[in-house]
Design brief:
Layout lengths: L14 H5 L17 H44 L18 H10 L4 E3 L1 H4 L6 E5 L6 H10 L6 H8 L3 E5 L6 E8 L5 H11 L6 E7 L5 E9 L2 E11 L14 E8 L1
Helix pairs in contact: 2-6
């Protein structure tokens, strides 16, 4: 029996059509891939700007983290090394004066003082003044004391206390006077106390007692006569770093308080 022939109808593709490979036109891909010069210029500018900004940020961080502490340390040491005279007021010369006379004497001595009572704006609070060190203006002092010495940089705090003293009198009483200051030169608590006694003209007065009080302050007491009236005096001292939390304070710096009272 003869098998029928198989053939392709018009709707079937020929074998040659199946073997034919069609290639896409790749001429567009073979062209050089060159970025337009405007875009290249923009990207170059973007890279340069990024590099500049990065350099500025790195420099700012380096200045803040490394250079600023170094500058602050140098400033602290410079202000500590300033040879600023204390020019302590002699309390025996003031103890029998009224408020107006006290101000007049201190002004005639050439002291530049800042009135601490002005910060509170309260009248009738007695005398509370700070003698300013050389090179410190009243404006700078007002800003520093308004903030508080603990709130300003350590170098500025050192500038304010090296060569200054604080003089106070209780309101309504001119028979109880105090002066307090930082001593950077004596080198020890005992030497600082002896310096204060000599400066106040108390070396030849009658000594009564010495020791360490309940607060840990070393002190000496005695009596002195002013125009026939007997007054008691006390000089006490402690390490300065127990009063001020300031970095780089010399270990032998001393905080001294002098009191003259009935």
């Amino acid at each position: 029996m003869e098998l029928p022939r198989l053939g392709l109808n018009r709707n079937n593709k020929s074998a040659r059509d199946f073997n034919r490979v069609t290639y896409m036109d790749t001429s567009a891909l073979q062209r050089p891939f060159d970025m337009p010069w405007l875009i290249r210029l923009f990207m170059l500018a973007f890279v340069v700007a990024g590099a500049i900004i990065g350099a500025v940020v790195i420099r700012g961080v380096y200045d803040l983290v490394v250079l600023e502490p170094q500058r602050e340390l140098e400033s602290i040491r410079k202000n500590l090394a300033r040879d600023v005279p204390l020019q302590l007021p002699v309390l025996t010369r003031l103890i029998q004066l009224d408020e107006e006379s006290v101000y007049e004497v201190l002004e005639n001595e050439g002291y530049i003082t800042f009135d601490m009572n002005s910060l509170g704006g309260i009248e009738g609070t007695g005398i509370d003044m700070v003698k300013l060190p050389d090179g410190v203006s009243l404006m700078d002092a007002g800003i520093a004391y308004a903030k508080g010495l603990s709130k300003i940089p350590d170098s500025e705090a050192i500038l304010m206390i090296n060569g200054s003293w604080r003089f106070s009198v209780l309101p309504g009483s001119y028979a109880d006077m105090k002066v307090k200051y930082a001593d950077f030169k004596s080198g020890s608590i005992d030497a600082a106390i002896n310096y204060a006694i000599r400066e106040q003209g108390l070396a030849d007065s009658e000594f009564r007692e010495s020791g360490i009080d309940s607060a840990g302050n070393t002190y000496q007491t005695g009596v002195v006569y002013v125009n026939g009236t007997m007054y008691r005096w006390q000089v006490s001292a402690c390490p300065l770093n127990e009063v001020y939390s300031i970095s780089e304070l010399p270990e032998d710096s001393v905080y001294v308080g002098i009191r003259l009272f009935l």
